[in-house]
Amino acid sequence: MSRATTPLVYVVLVLLWETSVRYLHVPTWILPPPSLIVTTAMNWAPDLAYNSWITIEETVIGFILGLILSLPLAIAIAFTVVLRRILYPILLALQSVPKVALAPLVILWLGIGTAPKIVIVVLVSFFPILVNVVAGLEAVPRPMLDLMHSLKAPEPVIFRRLRVPFAMPYLFTGCKIAITFAVIGAVIGEFVAAQEGLGYTILISTAQSLTPLAFAAIFLLTIISIVFFYIIEFVERRLVTWHL
Amino acid sequence: MMASERAIGIDTSAGEKKKNPLHGIDQPVIELLDVTKSFGTVKALGPINLAIANATFVSIVGPSGCGKSTLLRLIGGLDRPTIGRLERYGAEIDGPSRDVSIVFQDHVLFPWASVLDNVMLPADVISLPRAQALERARWLLELTGLKDFADHKPHMLSGGMKQRAAFCRALLSDPQILLLDEPFGALDALTREELSLELSRLWQSLARTAILITHDIDEAILLGDRLIVMSERPGAILLDMEVDLPRPRDIDTEKSQRFLEIKQMARNLIFMRRQA
Asked: Distance between CA atoms of B170 and B101, rounded to whole angstroms?
């Protein structure tokens, strides 16, 4: 397999899509050919760019808030039995509720501005980070703890010098899961009630049979999701340069 | 290059060295009195009575699962005995001490830190004077042939080099007592032999008390002034003898008549016990 194989397969698939849709005379409002999606995207470029920006904003703010919220919670849960017993079931219950079901309530409470979307993003993104960080803080191998204890290291030192660096890969795993969830969360929020954002674009364009525009928005969402994922992976490669 | 030429001591006495003033020079450094350790209803160890003299190298050999690692954890203060009493310098052992360093079976180097930072860990944790500790760390790395690897991450090192780094870390605080929990257990036979002879030389120049746990009889005899053979669970002392082999020891020591005699004795004891 040469390096060119993967892109080649994609090109063939796109061409197959283009020709079969044209050849079979599929109506464009059901399945537009890729060429039409591209030309539509170019015609609507300023509009798509603006709505992308809205969705990106909601995703990033919500994700960062989720991260800020989950870290102290993870530490509290990992180190205090009482908090673990009280908080974990609540968080687990919260996680089990489909966020789509919560979205209308959040909108009801917070209105149709940016705030409810951010809240939904926080709800979907903070749990994967929390669970992974708790796991990382607790997965420190026994011999490493023995070493620290044999040096009479106080718990804050063990935390700083051992648990935190050890949990870093776990944190990044959580973040990578969370960022893809965060994009979905923003779109869910926009589906329920919004006047801007890519979720809103999809909703409006399908309602008006502007299917190529909906496809363009979907592709943009996918690209946003992938780019975020790789940004986190890039940061991870920079910070976590070790292997066990 | 030898340790005796240039030993940089680090004074830890300000911190902790709570030596009993009544404790004489001939009294044991470590003493175990009727020590038993059980895990739930399973008796893992004991009763053990043992006194270890200053600046001796004690090798404790026994079959796997005989509780020898448990014994070392008790001496290191990482665990408490179920029954009995352990003393260090005549005072009860109630936890780890900065006089005691442990070398674990797996090097236990932190993979995110450089070799030098790993060796410096004790200094950072117990806040030794940094400049002095750094000088000693560099000296130890040079002594063990790791000078050029100070800035490398542990995963770039071979198994033997990792364990050498672990020894450097254990020696950084210049401990009075060195506890070695199967330190060569994870290494291949050749590296094992090389490293144990290196340790033998190093230890001789340091003149500290060392307790080695191993399941390798050759290694135990080669390194020890004193050989203790333990039974299967619950671990008890089967044999406790002086290893009257001349020092410095080398590869040829293992071929000497006396070495083979001691080895035969230890093996027979473990083997007979199993048949019974």
From this structure: 5
For residue range A12-62, list pLDDT tens digits in order: 999 999 999 999 988 888 899 999 999 999 999 999 999 999 999 999 999
In which domain, by residue range, is B128 found? 110-174
In terms of CATH architecture, what is A32-239?
Answer: Orthogonal Bundle (1.10)
CB B44 within 8 A of CB B67: yes
Q: How far apart are CA A174 and CA A95, in angstroms?
A: 14
B27-75 pLDDT tens trace = 888 999 888 988 888 888 878 898 998 889 999 998 877 888 889 999 9
Considering only CA atoms, which of B139, B104, B106 is closest in space to residue B120?
B139
* Cβ atoms A33, A41 nearer than 8 A: no
The Cα A136–Cα A74 span in angstroms is: 10
Q: How far is CA B103 from CA B33, B51, B122, B139, in A?
A: 24, 21, 13, 19
Cβ-Cβ contacts under 8 Å, A156 against chain B: none
Residue A171 Cα distances to A175, A177, B26, B97, B239, angstroms: 6, 10, 54, 34, 51
Residue of B nearest to A166 (CA): B112
User: Position B237: which residue type?
Assistant: I
Hey, what are B224's tokens?
């020890």
Q: Is the pLDDT of residue B274 over 70?
A: no
Whole-prediction pTM: 0.83
> Once rounded to an integer, what is the mean pLDDT over residues B143-151?
90
Overall domain count for chain B: 1
- Domain membership of residue B165 (yes or no) is yes
Contact B172, B133 (CB under 8 A): yes
**B5: in domain:** no
| B18 has pLDDT over 50 | no
Q: Say if B260 falls within a structural domain.
A: no
Residue B103 lies in a domain: no
Report the complex ipTM: 0.84
Report chain A residues whose CB lies below 8 A from the CB of B77: 150
Output the average pLDDT for chain B.
84
A242–B104: do the CB atoms touch at under 8 Å?
no
Q: Is the pLDDT of residue B20 over 60?
A: no
Inter-chain residue contact B125 with A168, CB threshold 8 Å: no
| Order of all β-strands in the sheet with B30-39 | B42-52, B30-39, B83-88, B91-92
**If you count them, how many residues does chain B have?**
276
What integer pLDDT is reported at residue A244 of this predicted model?
A: 53
A:B CB pairs within 8 Å? 60
Q: How many CB atoms lie within 10 A of CB B82?
A: 15
